[in-house]
Amino acid sequence: MALESEERPSQSITKFESMLKTDDIYFFDAEDFEEIIHHYLNHGKVALAKKAIKIGLQQHPACVELKLLDVEVLVFENNLELAERMLDELQVLAGNNEEIYIQRANIYSKKDNHEAAVELLHQALKLTDDSFDIHSLLGMEYLFMDDFKLAKESFMKCVSFDEQDYSSLYNVVYCFEFLEDFDGAIHYLNDYLERNPYCEVAWHQLGKQYYSKDMFPEALAAFDFAIISDDRFMGAYFEKGKVLEKLGRYGDAIENYETTLKLEDPTSHAYLRIGRCYEKEGNDEMAKYHYYKTVHEDPLLDKGWLVITEFYHRKGDFKKALYYINKALNIDGDNPEYWKKCGKIHTALRDFDNADFAYKHAVDLGNYELDTWLNWSEVSRMDDNPGTAIQILSQGAEFYPESSEIFYKRAGFYLMKGDQANGRIDLMNALRHDFKKLDIFQREFPQFCDLDWVLELISASKKTSR
């Protein structure tokens, strides 16, 4: 019966909409107007809600509840000054109405004064026994304040009021995850499932917690229970596929990913993971087919283009890899990951000018990862330009001042230029930061490893590291 009432408008709503189509004016009780307004607000029909408020206040000018709904719409539309003036008037008329405090809290929240919003919501709690919505609002304010502990407690109260409130359940788990309390989340969800054993949402969330702790058999069981509870739950099949991948059961993983394609519209993420499974099985043709489907389904998914280019890069087909990374750049030329991959491919093709150009673009677009600086410097080394390599690594050192890799490589480049003084300084810094990574210098610059002063530095560092 509840479902039926949601699908069909009530008699009041039908009567109101009939009135709007004519010049007639019908009379409604104030409670009828409240029902009509809530209906339109819940369905995002703000213009109709405003019409109902206007007519409702004409028929019931003293109704506090209708005035509060008027305030709610004003707050929604960011007309905060007028909303505050109306609340000041309502405070005199109905100072013990909790909705006044709730709307004031919403105004403070919109002004990013979340502490004041929380204080007002606590005052509202003292004025009502129906506190479900207030705890939900409190939870959101605590999230804005990054107080995940109190947010979690508020959302837990919402779930205790209504165990079918899956939005609050998700928020509880989100807080546990942010606090990195995966064991706490597992305990909470298992306790919830004791009371709601066929809740697919809780099983799904429990499986994700087990997955985050590498408890793959337990995760698999949880996702199976989610599917038993709802055999059309796409998310459970997808997450189950990820677990099966981790367990090396690629055929079973593919089967679960393919189920998601049948249940709803195909997703690029599913095609991508199917492609990876086929590649791990050594079935390159099927892997390529699904990688192509990935970028066809969503040309803006950067992971799709990156996985195709990496696939051909691993196979040594650098021209094919370049073809696909260029297609990606034509779609999104401001993606730093694409330029970084482009630099890697041009380096493999020994096209050092374009490799240098690509890495520079990646950095200009905000990619400051350590391996970007290291690989970029290698381009200059291969192009017999150690001076430029030093400049690149010096830029990288601004982001990674403690990186022994940068010091070891830059020391070698200084020595290539014949600058023993700076080479010595960098090698000393590298050895001091991480003696265990000395093999970087020994592997990449073997021609300098027999220098007397280099051997002395290494020997002294060995004694210090002991």
Give a structural overview.
With 466 residues, the protein is mostly helical. It is built from 28 helices and no strands.
What topology emerges from the helices and strands here?
Blueprint: H1 2-7, H2 11-20, H3 30-42, H4 46-59, H5 64-76, H6 80-93, H7 98-110, H8 114-125, H9 132-144, H10 148-161, H11 166-178, H12 182-195, H13 200-212, H14 216-229, H15 234-246, H16 250-263, H17 268-280, H18 284-297, H19 302-314, H20 318-331, H21 336-348, H22 352-364, H23 370-382, H24 386-399, H25 404-416, H26 420-433, H27 438-444, H28 452-465
Helix pairs in contact: 3-4, 4-5, 5-6, 5-7, 6-7, 7-8, 8-9, 9-10, 10-11, 11-12, 11-13, 12-13, 13-14, 13-15, 14-15, 15-16, 16-17, 17-18, 18-19, 19-20, 19-21, 20-21, 21-22, 21-23, 22-23, 23-24, 24-25, 25-26, 25-27, 26-28
In whole angstroms, the N-to-C terminal distance is 77 Å
Structural class: mainly alpha
Work out the number of β strands: 0
Helix content: over 70%
Query: How much is the radius of gyration in Å?
Result: 32 Å
Report the biggest beta sheet as strand number plus sense, adding barrel if it closes.
none
